[in-house]
Amino acid sequence: MRVSSTHELGWVYKLAPLALAAILAGCGTVKPMPYTAAENKERAATDRTKMYEEQEPVSNALTFEDAAARALKYNLDYRLKLAEQALAAGMLDVSQYDMLPKLLVGAGWMTRNNDSGGTSVGILTGQQTLSPSTSSERSHTVVNAELSWSVLDFGISYYRAQQRADGVLMADERRRKVIQNIMQDVRNSYWRALGAQRMLPRVDALLARSQTALARSRQIEDQKLLPQPTVLAYQRALIDAVSLLTQRRQDLELARTELISLMNLAPGTPFTLADTSNEALPPMPTNVDELERIAMEMRPELLEEAYRKRVTLNDLRVARLSLFPNLSASVGWQRDSNKYLYNNSWIDSGLRLSWNLLKLPQWPALKKAIGDQATVDDLRRYAQGMAVLTQVRVGAQRYGLARMEYDMADQSAKVDERLLNYTRSAVKTNAEGELELIRSEARALLTEYQRHAAYSQAQAAWGRVYNSIGLDVLPQTLDNTTVNGLSQSIKSTMSEWQRVTFQSAAPRADAQPEVKLVSAGARAEDVNQAATRALQRNGIVANATTESAWTLEMVWSQTSDTGSGKGTVNMRLLNPVGQIVHERNSEVAIGERTSSVVRAAVESAIDADVRSLHAAFKPPL
Question: pTM above the 0.85 mark?
Fold first, then answer.
């Protein structure tokens, strides 16, 4: 029987070297396999479809909140952070099972080409006392199941699970940061894109007119209808205007492209922005100390650093845990098919205490490392905290400056608009007048662009204030939220944050300056009406009656009552004791001497000088 068994198994041992050689030969056959052109084409088409699938179509004009809602719901960067957060939560669920005892089950089959066996030798005589014998079959199977538990493994798994839990929280803070950055980017692009929507048709029309005017001016130059220096000066002015308009047109078009990308719309998707009046800019926050406190509590970067400190401390706790003794226990069931065994199945159990004493000298260095790591984590968080406080304060200051820049751009646009209206009414039907009108239109359009740009910059500065504080603007989950519902939620949340968090000093009843308006000279009635309207529009009351009020004297003078000439607006601001604190003479070229021309000139003069008027009041307003 023994010979027969050896013969039966001989082929196994003969084929084993051949099988090993085949395996080793196969290891050298793996080569780089790039995708084919067809596979790349198919992948690109599939990816392009997946990028834009399951999105609500754009059916209405988009408000800012609608654009923000689309960006937050469909933006791929945000969806990536959501996937990373889900992955971190899944890893936490997996790590929970590491704390359970280990239950190992196994089965196997063992064979050999000859019998195992042994003999005994007498200790005193050194001679063999038993004939060779065996207690194991050449082929037999074993089955076992063992339950084991280790205190050290449990402790390490517990701290690793805590790290996974902190990883989930860190992923959530990164998600919040992406939301805030997306909101900031949408705010930057939306108002610029709205300006593009409003201005591009006007820019294109004026560019066409400017090209026509340039061609006509060259004809005038060739026909010598005007002096050459005059014509060249007009050409130079028109070319400068065309160049600036072309540059601004590029900026406007890029803003729309950026907004499309943020909303994850396919390039070229048609949509319209809600062309409502510009939202009133919020007042500059005065409770900066309170905003700094909120930022220190809510900024995602600081919270992430706080969680990271717990992660690193748990790494050190794992290292410290390995210094202690380890207690392990096990119990298992075993079965062996070996026919020579008296008991083919049995249960064994054990309890073991082990301690690596050579790790004990690590304790002083490990203790110092724990303290050093805590110090490093705290200092890194303090450094970020200082940067956060700076961002909050600088953000508030920049918003205040951006509001001032917008006010000045708004005043400049109004002045150019009035000058354009005046030029239209004063232009004569000749080539020189038409060229001057086109140049005035170009200047007015450029200042209008600057007003849109200043407004969008002020909105961006306001968004940076939000971003610097770390405010959340949407619910925790967006899975079942429609774009319209999310838009309403964003609008409500931002309104509530602004009402509760951003506070400004309450306006006093006497905060608006009042002046006693005195109009003299020619056209006094027109001057009085125009000045009253312009002052009221710029935050100055013009009907003060008290003796202690400031006085604003307005005098209009002109060279003649007919024909073209010049008009002068003289302004003098006197304090309550009669001292002149501000004076300005504005000279304008006029054509017709109509009331509308005089009123436009007076309003333009006040709009251009209103900042100096406000600065002249003491204390500063």
Answer: no
